[in-house]
Amino acid sequence: MFSIGEFSKITGLTVKTLRFYHEQGILEPSYVDEQTGYRYYAESKIETARVITQLRKLDFTLADISGILGNYEDEADILDYLKQQKQRISEKMREYRAISGFLDQIIIKEREAREAMNNATYEVEEKSVDSILIAGIRMRGKYSDCASGFGTLGRKFNRHICGEPFLLHYDTEFKEDDADFEACMPIRKGARTDAISVRELTGGRCVSLLHKGPYDDLGDSYGKILRYVKEKGYEIEVPTREIYLKGPGMILKGNPKQYLTEIQMLIK
Asked: Which GO terms describe its molecular function (predicted)?
């Protein structure tokens, strides 16, 4: 018989793993010295170790391996196990693809926000914005209620979302409890529902200002952009837009001092 160290070298399994497999009852030593506690393995155990290693490579659980070792001797006999394992792995792959896509969204969002911060002048600018396909939920209430609207849109359109969330403001004044706004997301495609509008949002010439900081401080930036509009003699088209380039993250809330919001007002 082989000592546990010798058996480890033969099978490529660490001593720690062999002890664990012993505890789990899937690869028991042929003999354990009662005085020293040393484990010894017969040569016949080498094949068992090889089978366990192969099954672990196929991501079988220890419970599955125990069942296979105790009841089957030929691969033809474990066909159902193999089919079930293939199905489990396929499901995991779908889950991992979804997770990978979610991570891509976070990475792209943070990269774009960082780039916007690095390039920002935090001065009022004039620019043209393109027409885009959007999904929107018209709401009345507190501005903070928009979170539920964004959540609904995120669940509905998911991978078809292709830009940052934003609000369309239909009021020309600040309202504390009865604001008229629409939570929106740019999408590649999607179908409307009774509660969700899917349509093209018309682009045009606009004045734009990046606001860095908490949402409660947006008033200062609105004052800055409205003074610019008055100086230029422009007429504002309603609704105006707030685009949330960086806000509470998908994982962490983040620091409100680092939030980045773009105010856009289409002008005539």
From this structure: DNA binding; DNA-binding transcription factor activity
CA proximity to 247, closest of 223, 201, 212: 212
CA atoms within 13 A on the CB side of 67: 10
CA distances in angstroms from 259 to 131, 210, 248, listed in the order given: 25, 10, 8
Does this model's pTM top 0.70? My answer is: no
> Rounded to an integer, what distance in angstroms lies between the CA atom of residue 259 and that of residue 215?
8
Q: Which two tokens stand for residue 40?
A: 């010894």
Spatial distance between the Cα atoms of 115 and 24, rounded to a whole number of angstroms:
52
The CATH architecture of the domain made up of 2-71 is Orthogonal Bundle (1.10)
CA 34 to chain CA centroid, nearest Å: 53
- The domain made up of 122-266 has a fold known as Multidrug-efflux Transporter 1 Regulator Bmrr; Chain A (3.20.80)
Question: Digits of tens for pLDDT over the chain (268 positions)?
Answer: 999 999 999 999 999 999 999 999 999 999 999 999 999 999 999 999 999 999 999 999 999 899 888 887 777 778 888 888 889 899 999 999 888 887 887 788 788 778 877 877 889 999 999 999 999 999 999 999 999 999 999 999 988 999 999 999 999 999 988 999 999 999 999 999 999 999 999 999 999 999 999 999 999 999 999 999 999 999 999 999 999 998 876 666 778 888 999 999 999 8
Torsion, CA 116, CA 122, CA 127, CA 129, rounded to 10: 50
Going by C-alpha positions, the residue among 21, 22, 40, 17 that lies closest to residue 30 is 40
